[in-house]
Design goal:
Chain B: It is a peripheral membrane protein. Chain B: Pfam families: ABC_tran. Chain B: This is ATP-binding cassette domain-containing protein. The complex is a heterotrimer of chains A (about 270), B (about 525) and C (about 325). By secondary structure, chain A is mostly helical. Helices cover about 70% and strands about 0% of the residues of chain A. Chain B has about 525 residues and is α/β, with parallel strands linked by helices. Chain B has three domains: about 120 residues, 3-Layer(aba) Sandwich (Rossmann fold), CATH 3.40.50; about 90 residues, no CATH class; about 220 residues, Rossmann fold. In chain B, the strands form four sheets. A six-stranded mixed β-sheet of chain B has the order 5-6-7-3-8-9, sandwiched between helices. In chain B, α6 runs parallel beside α7. Chain B is globular, with a radius of gyration of 25 Å. Chain C is built from twelve helices and no strands. Chain C is globular, with a radius of gyration of 24 Å. Classes of the chains: A mainly alpha (about 270), B alpha/beta (about 525), C mainly alpha (about 325).
């Protein structure tokens, strides 16, 4: 079991390493922009050919990962920045009103599909990368807050919390030292799936032209803009598409392997 | 005995898991129409031996020896929690027909359905399940605990099992439920079926067993007819196992002083969502004197835990007063000051759930002294270690994480955690239920020692078990949220005034323990 | 515990609140426009006549609450407003584009359920063996992949290299049903994420149920393997799966927009994207309300079904 897990972990690392390294270090090695050539050519000093406006595809690839990765990381962090305090407070407060005030609006927001929310906002604001990160974070908050609240409420309902209160421990020590500590595993697991989901949303929004300039160096934009030349110059589409697939798949595999304890979850046993 | 007919037999069974022998050379003969009880403390190998009759072993076990069941026939199994053995997504009819179907294979296809139905109805009436047709349509969660138990029995009867293994069928149940289970198993025995009872509940063993096998660390220490073995045990371990009751009673308690804790006109409610609250407890008046112990007895759902939680400040939703030395205690823990918190301490039923699994036990125990008495960390740690050692938990164990201690050990640690506050009142909520008799006696000894040894410590014992209650000076009886009777323990036990108390006492007597 | 009826009532109430919220949120869109909405919407061609036309069409000179009242009243009658760009009623846009989207969505759901349950049961049946490992890894990997990336790669392989299928639906108009070949790749792409998540849930639920004490009891009592799998274990995996089907609605919507863009299918997603690009606010609003309400209703339905299916443990009083 544990050898299998190590194997899956290694697979995840391998798959995610290429796009991640390209995204983070690519811009360092990209060098200056060369002269523009004809659109959609192969060869001619361009290793992966040229794109729809005659730029070097390899150079675009080197530059195009960073916005996807950074926007996704920022959006995930932002979502938790809001969801953690909201979820924790609403789980631990004894004022039902406060809990309702915090959670009900989120329940309602949960009904709006994430991409619809992003497209609606895009109609009005023409967001940039920061705006996109904010929007994606906003779309994630309801679900993340609910998860945090459920995990915290579960931990807070244990007799251990009452025992701590019996000992006169402070609210903070109970909330952070015990409830927070008990939630870590659940949160780590959620962070993994959430990051994958955010990567998906950020890339999809960029593909649909939200949050990016039409000629931006961005893997998702490259896939979109170079599609017209797919028959002439497939590399300009296939390379960034494969990198996005590797990035999302690798992240998912990595988190799944990292968080798998090796044992199976036990079944939900009926309690007497 | 050797020439008697047996329906199942185990010969020289050895079960080894991870190099450790769990069962070490057990021999067992199961005669028909008799109840064979396997008794022993937790970890004695009785469950592994019992499950061997079903052909089931722990994962990764190495097994040697021979298990033979007459005709290779099916063996029934009555688990500790019947709800766990009933598929929550299937109706009772499906649960029973599944088993009946296999028994009608010999019939022509078109007659099978009807025959299966007949067998199901027959088994249900034999298991004393009334209004069969209506019951068949229900899902397990729509049945009462007793009905679930009877459906599990009906399954075993449908199977045509000659042997039924009952695994701790009464653990954690109140006296009424216990006696019902005893009745049912007696009925099974009367049908000539052999019952193998795995239990550490000596009441049930006394009431049911024809043969008793005493196990310790995977070996049979002693076996023989129940009468002989229970009355005149040969082996020292058997005597220890059977001598559950510590010597009664506690020293006479002084009652001349003012009560330390007074409960006046207490009415507690439970709220469900936003709906109206339901009253779950009414206690007009209850006093606790210094140096005294008070047992609060009642069936499950009688409100006894709610009473304890009101006293401890864990159940806010109540009216009336809880007075400590004449001064009212705030309803919620959050509003109690350090002195008030320290004065009333609470020990939880589930010791594992009441500790933080990420920190060593001794550090958690020491926090009481730091928070409630303002001692510094070092002093608190030393004090914790001393208290833990005094309760039978050496330093090596105390420095472990909770997950690496047994239930009994953790319950001692929980007591130490509460005692470090130097409480005036210690509330113990069913702290021995679910422990095996030897461990339970250890904890009860600790408790009696506490009341005797500490100046003025008063104890509130919440329990469903009159044997445990008989250790206390006074007993209060709750039924359906009402305080029906209270008085000195000997009086309650010998001349109960209220019918509920009388029936509790009678059932305990029938169990044969309060000798 | 509150009974099932009160759960249904509370869930219905939440559904109503969500519908209202969607309507309000969508309406708030015009209010959120920075500065003069009409000027902002006129965009690249800010000639006074166009600005005046927009102001007139959207009745921007009237107070917001009056417009909200008008707009909601219109919604109730099926009047979704008029496009700023073409002057056509939004409901006509909807009617034109509805067919292809419905076809895509229903084909996907139709294939989703058998594929999800079939593969999930198959994996659970062979838990730990190569078949399970293969299904588990592939679903885990594909689950995370954005549709557009998967889509272009499939097009590259099946349309470009192998030439088996058309790369887009260009030239087929709205009558896609007559050209099944053009539907294969879009439906495949649309299926990818929901199928993966459904398979994983069914597998996990089955494995949990197969390891439960009640299945152990059924085995002990000689109930056959197939019967245990399909009548004992599978029903217990249904409730989480039904819940997941509801979440899938959200993904299907995302997927439909992307897939229609990728394969140039003239459905609702394409209309929505076009309107977003042209800042045709009434069209965006109309479509958003339709999408939003459909999501709310489907989620509601799935929650109620899941609640009905959820096996309950415990004891009756």
């Amino acid at each position: 079991m544990s050898r299998l897990r190590t194997g899956r972990f290694a697979l995840g690392v391998t798959v995610v390493a290429v796009p991640l390294l390209l995204a983070l270090l690519g811009p360092v090695f990209a060098g200056g922009p060369g002269p523009r050539a004809t659109s959609f050519t192969l060869g001619g000093g361009h290793w992966l050919g040229t794109d729809f406006v005659g730029r070097d595809v390899w150079r675009q690839v080197l530059h195009g990962g960073r916005p996807v990765v950074l926007t996704a990381l920022a959006a995930t962090a932002l979502a938790y920045l809001v969801a953690l305090p909201v979820g924790l407070v609403s789980a631990l407060t004894r004022h039902r009103r406060l809990e309702d005030l915090l959670m009900r609006p989120l329940d309602v927001l949960l009904a709006v599909p994430s991409l619809l929310l992003i497209l609606l906002a895009a109609t009005v604001f023409e967001p940039d990368a920061v705006g996109l990160a904010l929007l994606v974070a906003l779309a994630q908050v309801p679900d993340a807050a609910r998860l945090v609240r459920a995990a915290a409420a579960e931990a807070a309902a244990r007799p251990a919390v009452e025992a701590l209160r019996m000992q006169g421990e402070t609210w903070w020590r109970i909330a952070v030292g015990y409830v927070g500590r008990s939630m870590l595993r659940t949160l780590a697991a959620d962070a993994g799936t959430r990051l994958t989901g955010v990567l998906y949303l950020v890339a999809t929004a960029a593909f649909l032209g939200v949050g990016v300039a039409p000629d931006a160096a961005d893997w998702a934009v490259m896939v979109d803009r170079n599609r017209t030349g797919l028959f002439v110059q497939p590399w300009a589409v296939v390379v960034p598409a494969v990198l996005i697939v590797a990035l999302t798949t690798g992240t998912n595999l990595l988190f799944d392997a990292a968080l798998d304890k090796g044992g199976r979850r036990t079944g939900k046993e009926a309690r007497p | 005995m050797n020439h008697e007919h047996t329906v199942a037999e185990i010969r020289d069974l050895r079960v080894r898991v991870d190099g450790r022998l769990i069962v070490d050379g057990v021999n067992l003969r199961v005669p028909p129409g008799r109840v064979t009880a396997l008794i022993g403390a937790s970890g004695s190998g009785k469950t592994t031996t019992g499950l061997a009759l079903l052909g089931e072993y722990p994962a990764g076990a190495e097994v040697t020896g021979e298990v033979r069941v007459e005709g290779g026939g099916p063996v029934g199994y009555v688990p500790q929690h019947p709800a766990a053995a009933l598929n929550p997504a299937r109706r009772v009819s499906a649960l029973l027909t599944d088993i009946a179907r296999a028994r009608v294979r010999h019939l022509p296809v078109r007659r099978r359905r009807l025959a299966a139905r007949e067998r199901v109805l027959e088994a249900m009436s034999e298991a004393q399940l009334p209004s069969a047709a209506e019951l068949l349509r229900r899902y397990p969660h729509q049945l009462s605990g007793g009905q679930q138990q009877r459906v599990v029995l009906a399954q075993a009867l449908l199977l045509g099992a000659r042997v039924v293994v009952a695994d701790e069928p009464t653990t954690g149940q109140d006296a009424l439920t216990k006696s019902r289970i005893v009745e049912q198993l007696t009925a099974v025995r009367a049908r000539g079926i052999a019952v193998v009872l795995l239990s550490h509940d000596l009441d049930v063993v006394r009431a049911l067993a024809d043969e008793v096998v005493v196990l310790r660390a995977g070996r049979v220490v002693e076996s023989g007819p129940a009468q002989r073995l229970l009355l005149a045990p040969q082996h020292a371990w058997t005597r220890e196992l059977l001598s559950v009751e510590p010597e009664l009673p506690l020293a006479e308690a002084p009652t001349t002083e003012q009560p330390v804790l007074r409960i006046r006109a207490l009415t507690a409610r439970h709220r469900d969502g936003s709906r109206a609250a339901t009253v779950v407890l009414r206690t007009p008046e209850l006093d606790l004197f210094p140096g005294q112990s008070l047992a609060v007895v009642g069936r499950s759902g009688s409100g006894k835990t709610t009473l304890a939680r009101c006293v401890a400040g864990l159940h806010r939703d109540h009216d009336g007063e809880v007075l400590l030395d004449g001064a009212p205690l705030p309803r919620s823990l959050r509003d109690r000051d350090r002195g008030q918190l320290a004065a009333v301490q609470y020990v939880f039923q589930d010791a594992h759930a009441a500790f933080d699994e990420h920190r060593p036990v001794v550090h958690q125990v020491a926090r009481t002294a730091v928070r409630l008495r303002g001692t510094d960390e070092d002093t608190a740690l030393r004090e914790a270690l001393t208290t833990l050692a005094g309760l039978g938990l050496p330093e090596e164990l105390a420095r472990r994480h909770p997950g690496r201690l047994s239930g009994g050990e953790l319950q001692r640690a929980a007591l130490a955690r509460a005692l470090l506050a130097r409480p005036r009142v210690l509330v113990c909520d069913e702290i021995t239920s679910g422990l095996d008799p030897v461990t339970r006696r250890g904890i009860l000894d600790v408790l009696t020692g506490l009341v005797r040894g500490r100046d003025g410590l008063s104890l509130v014992l919440i329990t469903h078990d009159l044997d445990t209650a008989s250790l206390a000076h006074r007993i209060a009886v709750l039924d359906a949220g009402e305080l029906v009777e209270q008085g000195p323990a000997p009086q309650i036990l010998t001349t109960p005034a209220h019918p509920v108390t009388a029936s509790l006492v009678a059932r305990t007597r029938a169990g044969g323990t309060t000798a | 515990m509150s009974g099932p009826r009160s759960f249904v009532a509370r869930r219905l109430l939440l559904g109503v609140a969500q519908t209202v919220a969607v309507v309000l949120l969508v309406f708030a869109l015009t209010e959120a426009l920075p500065g003069d909405a009409a000027v902002a919407l006129a965009g690249d061609q800010p000639d006074p006549a166009r600005i005046a036309a927009i102001r007139e069409a959207m009745k921007l000179d009237r107070p917001a609450w009056e417009r909200l009242a008008d707009w909601t009243a219109g919604l109730l009658h099926g009047d979704l407003g008029t496009s700023l760009v073409s002057g056509r009623p939004v409901s006509l846009y909807l009617a034109d584009a509805f067919g292809p989207t419905l076809l895509l969505a229903s084909l996907t759901v139709l294939l989703l359920v058998p594929a999800g349950f079939g593969l999930g049961v198959l994996a659970a049946r062979h838990a730990g063996r190569p078949v399970d490992r293969l299904i588990s890894s592939v679903t885990l990997a594909v689950y995370a992949v954005p549709e557009f990336a998967l889509g272009v790669l499939l097009v590259t392989v099946f349309a470009l290299r192998l030439g088996w299928l058309p790369p887009t639906a260009v030239g087929y108009g709205t009558d896609l049903a007559a050209h099944p070949a053009a539907l294969v790749l879009p439906v495949l792409v649309l299926l990818s994420r929901p199928v993966c998540s459904l398979v994983r849930l069914v597998r996990a639920g089955m494995i949990d149920a197969l390891a439960s004490p009640y299945v152990a009891q059924a085995r002990r009592y000689g109930v056959s393997g197939a019967r245990i799998r399909y009548t004992h274990a599978l029903p217990n995996a249904l409730a989480p799966a039904a819940q997941q089907l509801a979440r899938t609605v959200d993904w299907l919507l995302c997927g439909v927009v992307v897939v229609e863009a990728l394969f140039v299918i003239p459905g609702l997603g394409t209309v929505l994207l076009g309107a977003v690009a042209e800042r045709d606010v009434p069209v965006v609003q109309g479509l958003a309300v339709v999408f939003g309400v459909v999501t709310v209703v489907l989620n509601l339905g799935a929650d109620l079904v899941a609640h009905r299916l959820a096996p309950r443990a415990g004891v009756a009083a």
